[in-house]
Amino acid sequence: MRSALPVNLNRIDLNLFAVFDAIYTAGSLTKAADVLCITQPAVSNSLSRLRDMLNDPLFVRTGHSMTPTPVAQNIIVPAREALKLLRTSVQESHVFNPLTSEKAFNFASRDLLEVSIMPRLMAQLQDVAPGISLTNYDVSRANIVSAMASGSLDFFADASTFADPHLCKQKIADDNLVVLARKNHPALADGLSLETFLKLGHINVSQRKTGPGPIDVALDKLGKRRRIVMRGQHFLTVPSTVVKTDLITCMPYHLAKHYDLAIYDMPFELPPIEYFLYWHVSADHDQAHIWMREQIMDVARAYQPH
């Protein structure tokens, strides 16, 4: 009698268990081959590999039939349950019912999605997909592709372009930068000129510790430079400083309009901001993913920039 040996999980091939199930049900290699639509040698080869992996003959020939061993009898139920779960998962990837789904979608977006789109999206989903949940969390750009490839991240939304052959993208919104200042700002009683814009202290929002952004690049082309006295990582934290100081900041209109602060047009020309939604190519044809992308686009179409 063979001694039991630990099974190396890295060697497990689910196709072998499909063959195992067919042999167990049919009672012969020939009938199993007919059921699986493969050759009998292919069935024999799969059985040989499974025997080697599990260190057990699994079936012994009794007349014209293959009789399962005690080990085979012990593993047939969990093997069939595993195969059923796999088949169900594959089928659900082709048939998606939002009304009954309890799928969780994970997003990585800093400001646009969380402030302007996600609230509208959640309101839209509560009736048509009450069991679906949304999570938005921070993922560094360096880890975006790997997080999507692993399935831990479904969507990434950002204003900057992200070029990677493993990602699909679609533009979801346009916006423009405006200047935000506290109400009754003493230097802005007559409006905001370029001269005043350059004279006042600025809060600059950037994920980088140093370096120019689009505003500074545009000013440099005019031979101008603004006075940055504070840097922050997120637009959402800036208004609490603006309301208490004489500092001004530039931010997308879709965010600025939510605060009880004074909004001014930029005193020089800047190109509009384009926002893109990204997802991994492996999810491009997934029915649940396609449905969620449609919901996001429905919400985004209703979004109106300044």
TrEMBL record:
Keywords attached to this entry: DNA-binding, Transcription, Transcription regulation
PANTHER family: HTH-TYPE TRANSCRIPTIONAL REGULATOR LEUO-RELATED, TRANSCRIPTIONAL REGULATORY PROTEIN
Protein name in the entry: LysR family transcriptional regulator
Molecular function per GO: DNA binding; DNA-binding transcription factor activity
One protein family per Pfam: HTH_1
Family (UniProt): Belongs to the LysR transcriptional regulatory family.
Keyword Oxidoreductase among record annotations: no
Bilayer-crossing regions: none
UniProt domain HTH lysR-type: residue ranges: 12-69
Source taxon at top rank: Bacteria
